[in-house]
Inverse folding.
């Protein structure tokens, strides 16, 4: 396992960058969210041209909406062949975006925070998903992240959880 594929303090700093944190993104649904992310991620050399179709297909097959104390989150991701450079992108949309509940069981989730994982190591997203779920289940981490007003503050608050 490479350092860039873990969420310990150094790994989180390597995977999340301030330019991949978006606050008040104005989208109405997950398709618009994925369009906006594709534009930004492709421009930064993070994703392959196949990313956009792959993330929508994977989300239909394996939904990622979750409800935690403090708010609702979606953690969409794709298989490694669609990622050129590992990354974490954080989005706090202007209004919640509907995602189906993880595992397909439960009501749709109005995600207030979207954590998009792009991992180049096969199976790496499973470890990261578990670490994120553990983080979001404990304490007030989701509400703390949602309370941040700027991309810089959201970035700082997220990285702080892995120090």
């Amino acid at each position: 396992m490479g350092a860039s594929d873990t969420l310990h303090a150094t790994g989180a700093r390597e995977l999340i960058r301030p330019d991949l944190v978006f606050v008040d993104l104005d989208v109405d649904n997950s398709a618009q969210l994925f369009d906006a992310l594709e534009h930004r991620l492709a421009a930064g050399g993070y994703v392959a041209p196949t990313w956009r179709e792959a993330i929508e297909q994977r989300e239909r097959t394996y939904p990622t909406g979750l409800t935690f104390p403090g708010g609702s989150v979606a953690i969409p991701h794709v298989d490694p062949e669609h990622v050129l450079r590992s990354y974490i992108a954080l989005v706090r949309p202007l209004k919640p975006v509907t995602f189906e509940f993880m595992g397909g069981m439960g009501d749709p989730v109005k995600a207030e925070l979207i954590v998009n994982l792009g991992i180049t190591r096969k199976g790496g997203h499973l470890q990261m998903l578990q670490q994120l779920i553990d983080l979001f289940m404990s304490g007030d981490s989701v509400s703390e992240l949602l309370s941040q007003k700027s991309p810089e503050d959201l970035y700082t608050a997220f990285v702080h959880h892995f120090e």
